[in-house]
Specification:
Length: about 350
């Protein structure tokens, strides 16, 4: 497949995302290709570990095939549902994979890129890493396991990242545990070569080339974030931000004003539920049900139009206000799918 390069290099299975014009955004076929390779290597004793990176161009992975999802969501949603089902199976397979997995998050790592990298045992950030879950800006929510990962970050940082879509640099990703190692981008190829030479010494290879990361700027606002985002109720968060006179709160308020009210409420509930999920499969099942519904609601199609297609950055959200998003609407979005439509690990 031209968008995914699957090879073995010595004892290492290699998965290389290769869709440079789309910043390596994932298609259904790419997700299935990764699934097939993981299945093939699972019982192959010659393959000791799996390495995931991108081939040509910048960015590790900018997300999923958003235009396809929006086109599908505007009609019967069948292609979008098939994509989510396959992508989430890939996320789960990586999460439960018995062999060591290494992801090189060198460059843009957003949405689907987070879903590919976070389940890996080793997650390498560089000074070029830009990690984010910016879905509320297009009427979606932090899926691909985003509920699981963000709800398990320290304090209320996960809620802040989910609602604002704030971008983390490599140092911040490392400080939050979203990356396990911080390497200069110039040493990434050497790290890969060392892993191919000795796949049983991945930790030593990465630690030996790692450098001390710069200070994590986000953590300077840790106490402020915990206070401002203490509630699981969006109206309360907005009221606290409004009452706070600080520059950080005002900037955050301005950011949230651009996001889909429905998507923000969905995201908050997702993280609240995810914190108590027993298994990653439970999380995937819930996210799949939510995704199948959200993708056919007006905000997703409108968000993609405003930010990606027309680029006028003037989405007309429906409902237009936070107050207009009823508890009943959220409950319907989160209702389990009928058994014959529900997600399964495979």
């Amino acid at each position: 497949m031209s968008d995914l390069i699957v090879t073995t290099e010595g004892p290492v299975g290699r998965l290389r995302l290769d869709r440079p014009k789309a910043l390596h955004a994932l298609t259904t076929a790419m997700c299935q290709g990764i699934l097939d390779a993981l299945e093939q290597w699972r019982g192959d004793e010659a393959v000791r570990c799996v390495m995931i990176d991108h081939a040509e161009g910048r960015g590790f992975c900018a997300g999923g095939d958003i235009r396809m999802l929006a086109d599908s969501g505007a009609t019967d949603g069948a292609a979008a549902r098939a994509f989510f089902h396959t992508e989430y199976r890939m996320n789960h397979r990586l999460f439960t994979y018995v062999k060591d997995t290494v992801a090189f998050m060198d460059g843009v790592t957003m949405g689907g890129g987070v879903g590919v990298s976070q389940p890996c045992r080793y997650r390498v950030a560089t000074e070029q890493t830009r990690l984010a879950m910016p879905e509320t800006g297009i009427g979606l929510f932090p899926d691909v396991g985003g509920g699981w990962y963000l709800s398990r970050l320290p304090g209320r940082i996960g809620q802040y990242l989910a609602l604002t879509g704030a971008r983390l640099d490599g140092a911040e990703a490392l400080a939050l545990g979203l990356a396990t190692h911080y390497l200069p981008a110039a040493r990434v190829e050497e790290a890969k070569a060392r892993i191919v030479a000795d796949p049983d010494a991945i930790e030593a290879a990465l630690s030996g080339l790692a450098e001390e990361a710069p200070p994590a700027r986000l953590l300077a606002n840790r106490d402020v974030i915990d206070r401002l985002f203490a509630s699981d109720d969006l109206e309360e968060i907005l009221a606290v931000l409004q009452a706070d006179g600080g520059a950080f709160a005002q900037d955050t308020l301005a950011t949230l004003a651009t996001k889909s009210p429905q998507a923000m409420k969905v995201s908050l509930k997702l993280l609240k539920d995810a914190a108590g999920m027993a298994t990653f499969a439970d999380e995937m099942r819930q996210e799949h049900a939510v995704a199948c519904r959200v993708v056919q609601r007006p905000d997703f199609v409108e968000g993609v139009r405003a930010l990606i297609v027309d680029k006028d950055n003037a989405p007309r959200w429906e409902p237009a206000t936070v107050a207009g998003v009823s508890d009943h609407m959220i409950d319907r979005i989160f209702a389990p799918l009928p058994e014959d439509e529900a997600w399964t690990p495979g």
